[in-house]
Records
---
Amino acid sequence: MWNVNASTAYEVYDNGKCGHFPYVIKCRNMAVHNSNNQPNVNNSNVVLAAQPSEIGVKKTMSSLEMAELAGRNHKDLLRSIRSMEAAWEKVTGRKFSLSEYIDSTGRPLPCYNFNYEESMYIASKFDDETRAKLTIRWAKLETGQAEPMYHQPKQQQLTMKDKLTWVKEVQKMLKLNDASTLGLIQQIADPLGLPVPQYVDSRGILMSATSALIESGNVCDVRHFNEAMMKCGFLEELSRKSSKGLVKRFKHLTPKGLKWGENQVNPKSPQQTQPLYYKNKFLDLLKELNLK
């Protein structure tokens, strides 16, 4: 005979497999037994309760951790997650849990935190080896052999108003054109699922100095063109520090120069701008510079 008192605990198994979250059996009766020396319990004798270490703790896995396990770029994984979210929301009625982390440069960037079912759904796009790694990782999380990856939270939560004010100040400081300003707004709106226009009306066809000079008959090279622009006060040179501490210089249209073109965020280097020129005004600009 094996007596089991109310403090004795057993993990609950389903068909030989431990459930996603361990539970314990608490017996209401003072003692229960059977002839095989195994606990004999039924629905009237037991209640299921989470183990003390599990109370209030919900296991999650971040998209950063999933990207690391899959050997994928986190930005690429975020793109896949967003494309899969609509179907998940349609079936379950809820969106994924959007969060933020601080990268090595101090920038707050978006990430997601997934429960077991959500992560398995995302992993359906992974290869067999990655899904195996993910399954093992979850087993370690649930048995306490591993802890979730936590990332440094933001010290101060910025409001939507704060972010849009920042865009306004950047636009004013760098004299960005509407397309570049829209691009900054889209970076704020996309993680929140907010709609933004796909385009803005242009004040004219924009061309780089190189393309415009070629179309105008190569009256001079870009270096001489930029020198003439700077001499007339239409163009200025700004600088910024790169991630490696090097000084990067770039050209920028002044308020006076905005008559002839626009400043646009450089797609190859988003932290700096590049001047673009109105096609229908370029010949007049060359005359203004005494280059035609």
---
Amino acid sequence: MEEHKAYPAQSYAEAYRYFSSDCPEEDKYHINSDNTVKRIISSIKTSERFAKMLLIGQSGCGKSSVLRQIVTDTEINSAYHPIVISASDDMSMNTGDPIDILICIRAKLIQAMQKQQIEMPVRSPEFMASGKEIRHRFVNRIRELEDHISDLCWTLSGQVHSGYRIDESVLKKLGDEDISENILSRLRILKAQEYKSEFTFLRALESVIGELQTLHYKPLFLKHSWTEEKKEVLIVADDFNFLKREAAEKLFFEGRTTINAPDAKMIFAFPLSLWHYPIFSDLSSHFHCEWIRAINVYDAYGNYQTSHADLLKEIVLKRMDHSLISERAMTMLTEISGGILGELMRCVRDACIRAIATKASIIDEDIAKDVIHRRIDTYARLLDMAKYENIIKSIIRSKKKTEAQNKDLIDLLSCSFVLEYGSNTDKVWYDAHPCLTFDGKRL
């Protein structure tokens, strides 16, 4: 297996990889301005038992990154069995047919049970067929399939999960036993790990605090670190960002009863543009909704938001050594991104390619300008100016969505020509993407 170097990147080729969406370490350095991950984890834990949730945001704002962080979070894994389904892995789910969602959930639940060597609940032999056969047999008997999936959820969540684990509650108990802060700080290295046997747990302790300290505190470690608990199922549904309206209507409106059927908590990534369709106006009555929005570098009154800009720059410098990019170039690229993380990744990635091609020693203002003009050309080619120019100008002036008819607003949000800003506690406002307002003065 290829061994990857540590962050931040020391070369443009390495940096290009770190700014790619398929970089396996990418989520480790995701930064969000309003602690989205913590907020959503709190919502998951405090919501009703089998709550269904939507994570709503524009394409590129970080929904997938947030969901991946939630799935790997120690706190979530100590309380739930995360089951991940993705529309990008199974294209049949893009049709929005609820039975395809259920079949995918069923397959993932069975995989999780097989991995843990859990015996399947006794059911009709019909349920042991392949996914295609299941679909053919149960397309008109979907209630039976719903019951089967709930059986799987109950079986998986009914298992007693045991092992040795270091978490904050364990560290507090050890601190109450007068174990030194020096040892506790070193034990935090093990927070994301779980150990099934006493032997492997003690070996891990020896690796971080030494053999003598492990032997000395062994009774306390074994007493406080052992956990036995049941974990319920949490289904995380990602990559539904490109659902067409008809497919989303079939899934979240017509098929609402079916996707609410599994006895498990569920959270779906949901595209912001669809949220504005009138048919989805009552979604909040059936789903707990959380938003993730772009990070605004300027507020609605044109004031520069230094703390937000610094967050975006931190995203860059977590991945790329500061010697590879000038402060001015970084400011330009963060501003032109509009605070859309996917757009920022693309801009810096393009700057790396440009730096490699020109054998530049640093990404400077000229390279940033070249990248920006290419992005502006892309937006100019895609936007129907004759249709949308006056609407966009009105939104720029008022910062309100009421300047556009609903269908036009949906189109503009879908293509990120218009961006939605604001936190859960602030007033929501709108602005054109910076690529549509570039005049050479701000950048």
---
Amino acid sequence: MQNIDDLKGILEEYVQNSNQVFITGHIEPDFDSIASSIAMALLIKKYKKPVYIIFDEDKDKIQIGVNTILDEAKYRISFIDINSYLRLKSNNDLLICLDNNKNYRVCCKDYLNNFNRILIIDHHKKIKILLMLIINIFILHYLVRVK
């Protein structure tokens, strides 16, 4: 299992060597998928890189609480749909997939080959990644502090 410093180094290298960063959770997002995506986007902003969360879901079909989180975060984070991604994409983009390790559960699954690099951070794997827990704690702390 990698330690947190190794994970931080990998994340920094991937972000710094990319033009922009796109983040996605899984289809039919739940609280941990959205919270980890928002937290990662806030973290990436510290690197002064353009960052977008690809969110291509019908908001009427997701949990009310998830919609509340999205409404709170939309003033701090750029949420885009697939069509917006297709307009923004470049040759050197990073995709960070959170809370999911199956390509068929990613909303941008048809465009995975467009990305120069893909970083997967998922707590569902047998070796749980501590970074996911830290990200979830960070976003909850951030949302509570901002109110």
